[in-house]
Every structure is written in C-alpha cells, then in structure tokens.
Amino acid sequence: MFKIRAPDESPNTDGIHIGRSFDVKILNSDIQTGDDCVSLRDGSKKVTVQNVNCGPGHGISVGSLGKYQNEQPVSDIVMINVRNPIIIDQEYCPWNQCSKQNPSKIKISKVSFKNIRGTSATKGVTLLCSKGVPREQLEMSNIDLKFNGAAATARCHNVKPIVKGRAPICVA
Q1: N- or C-end of the chain: fewer Cβ atoms within 10 A?
Q2: 123-136 pLDDT, tens per residue?
Q3: What are the Cα distances from residue 73, in Å, to 5, 77, 102, 146, 162?
Q4: Residues annotated as part of the active site
Q5: How many CB atoms are closer than 10 A to CB 104?
Q6: Confidence at residue 130, expressed as pLDDT on a 0 to 100 scale
Q7: Which stretches are annotated as coiled coil (predicted)?
C-alpha cells in the first residue's frame, strides 16, 4: 500500500497531481492531505484511481481548467461508487476563511460534462452556482450515473444546464 500524508490544515497539498498524461493507474493507496487527494488537470486520459482512501481533503478532483488557451479535455471517465461524482460549488469556502454572504463573482462558462458513466454512492450531481453572475453554456450530455440501481439526479441551484442525450434531471 502506498501512503501520502500531509496535515489536514495545510493548504494546497495535492497528494497526486496529474496533467497531460495517458494510462495512469493509482491503486491501493491511502492519501491524506488538506487539499485534493488526486487532481486531474488538462489532457488527463484513461486514468484509473481504484481502491484509494482519500481524506480529509477534497477527494479526486478534475479542475483548474479553462485558465489557459489550448487546454485539452479530461476524458474517459467511469466512476464506481463515488460519493460526489459531479460537483460545481461556487459557495466553496475552504477552512471557513471567507464569507458566504457575498456571492462568487467568478463567471462559469463553456463547461461540459460528457460521456460519464458509473455508479454513485450518493444521489448524484450537485451544481451549486453563484447567484451573483450568470452561467453560460453549462452542458451535460450522455451521463449515465446510477444510485442504488436508479438514475442519479442533479441538485441544481442558479443554473439550468443544457441537456443533450441522457443526463440527470435537475431537482430543487
């Protein structure tokens, strides 16, 4: 078993950071960090993360995309018994160092979740967007996530995603 440890209060301590990589396997590991357990950045393809214990940080994250031109998508996503398979959280406040009184002023645009399948350990998808700025072009297509054998749902706040093909239905 591979182990990574960092104090839970230490900021920006990703356990494993992957970008522009193909056919990476992270297996049978214990990763305890204050930030992302495993972070997938642009160009990550066919990455397997299996039997990995994450905590107390954020788990496995796909993020920090859209900052630079010519970024490559993260692709080939299959989730098995994942607690929070898809989350956008614009009320995210690490270590309670911010105020949720003021909505985020970060504009989310041109985000797509496509061809994601697997099982969820929770009811599904959370899209919690800021009421302070409009969202543009948030697309969900061909998403086949199951929770206890039934289709997963999406909890959507301040956003109506463009749905193409199969995708979780937004509920309040």
Answers
A1: C
A2: 889 998 888 887 77
A3: 29, 11, 31, 24, 19
A4: 58
A5: 19
A6: 86
A7: none
